[in-house]
Please model this.
Amino acid sequence: MNTPATNPFTVAFRGRFRNVLRWEQLDQLWEVLRRDAGNGWYLYATGESPPEDPVSGEMLRTFLSEIDLLLRREHDEDYCGIVYADSFESPQFIKIYDPGNLGVSCGYSDNPPLPGWVLSKLPPSDLNAAAFSPANRRRWWRRLLGA
Model:
């Protein structure tokens, strides 16, 4: 039986990540993901049910284009700082924080916000984030998926 302490997704979620500080770094990360599209990526919007299947390469590329627009429009800073990857060269797990729900994601907190979206090569497990996912983001996610 998987517990949060042994669940591979949860273990990876709690692992070490590198912060994408500059927009140029984000462009490079997106390019790595575009080249790897169709190779078993799961897209998980926290607050929604975890997906059971990886997305198609086309859906991953669509998501990357849409999330890039959202981040640049709503995180009006000269730095990125709200995307984290386990590796820039060969990512397997990426956390994207919602610019409209940052809380103290950049600092220490006993109850830090969950990322708005997770891209993972591992099948996601529920992060119990319904209370942290604003309704406008759920609508955005559902529109993107055509649901």
